[in-house]
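In the current project phase, work has continued on tokenised descriptions of protein folds. One protein thus recorded appears below exactly as we store it.

——
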Amino acid sequence: MNAQDQGICAKTVPISVCSQLNSSDHDCLVLVADDVSILPTEFELISQCLSAQNSIVSEFHSGIHVIYCESLPSKRIVLSFTGSLDRDYDDTRRVSEAARDGISHAFKIGSIRPLLALAPLKALEKIRILPSWAKPEALCLSTLLGALHALYVPLEVREFTLRPVKSDLHKSVKPSKVTSLGWFPGTYTVDHAHLVHIAWCLEEGRRVCRDIGGSDPERMCASRIVDYIKAELSDTGVVVETGPVDAILYPLAAVVDRGSNERHRGAIVHLEYSGPLAGDPNDSEVTNLFLIGKGIVYDTGGSDLKVGGIMATMHRDKCGAAAVVGFFKTAALLKPEKLKLHGGLAIVRNSIGSNAYVSDEIITSRAGLRVRVNNTDAEGRMVMTDLLCEAKEQALQVVNPHLMTFATLTGHVVLSYGPNYTGIVANGPSRVMGADQTFQSYGELLGEMHEISTLRREDFDAHKAQEEYADLINSARPVGGKRVRGHQSPAAFMIVASGLDSHMTNAEKPLPYTHFDIAGSQGPCPGIPTAVPLLTLASRYLLQGFWEEVSKL
């Protein structure tokens, strides 16, 4: 594999703890704050400078300010205000976005070795009951993650820098934005060495997710996604197995793959990771996660073609699978105990052509359900269902299983909750566990916001085929000419078509299943993918010890 296919093997920028604001190792101080009128002794070196600025600048509590500071070797401070933090609807995104914007401004003015610091947030002192996201470890980690988001360089940009320069017309590009990132502990009493390690490992996973999810449909066609996954997960302890989209094993996925030529032929990828102390299959303390990702390399809509310009941005339809790969990367770095991960990815292109599947076809799923296609643009549920069925079969043989699907699945979830929010849909056993609320809470710690949707009987009824030929239709029938409950019913379809409906709360062996629709939260396009819901999964399953032990308060 050449350097381009390996993505230059670029790692996340190194992060180091720096206890001195006046360290000559850094060429700019990026300070995140909500109020700088009075700062503690840890910031004494810059207090006078900020006080002077406060006295001459009105509205010195919002936006970004570049300040000359004689007491620093770099002579410059980028001050990024969070804005209000004490209202009912404020959350940690105020902090992470301030860090992101501050770091972005720092490298725009030429900084390549910024030092990041979080001042004490005075607005939080007004809150009677401090929210979980406002605890020191969560605030510090959110700040670092916001900065690291700004420092990501897209894979294709990194690779472009390898080419001989033949024109002065293209934008100036660099393989990295900075050479290092410093972190000033300030007043926060956490284990900062552990903190920056956690942040780096999380960002490595997000980098992998962004590389796959954000790259164009040729750079990340199915075969090159497979190559990338193998390269990134080599020597990590993750077992990677790949194969074709077998029509016997994965008939619903295979019918979608059928329309692609050999160059765009799809793949099924299985990932396995076993953490320390997770070797005993009968250990009741081991958790088994089955993570199924939608990896639609490009979605033309198939025979139900996307028209009127709405096909643009469909290279992002692989972000669900990308998030699963990124989570495996982070898990392999953090090595959580008593956790086993089982991943299944459907890497397929939904193409249009003489071999493409069409509405009215009837396909029998792996679980034996006859599915009549009535919308080829509902391909995401098709490619994941047989993998979900396979995961169900495996989950019945292990302790503490939890099945999940991740997909940029519907426009309906964006209409329901707007951009930036994931729709979580849980089956009965998952809801009994409180999994949907748990994911919501753990996501909020690090700024990934989720809304909880509920499966209702109408969601299951909407996919019943009203005929003798088939059991199900793959797309819910419109009600009154409008598509209703459009992000809940696909989960119901996958539950029934995979046979998971035989393992509801009333079954002898109930299986918890949670679906994440990330169509609205995967990030702006054009722009940088968010890697949602990687931080939520990590917060819930990889950082338990961090949340419990890092804070010394």
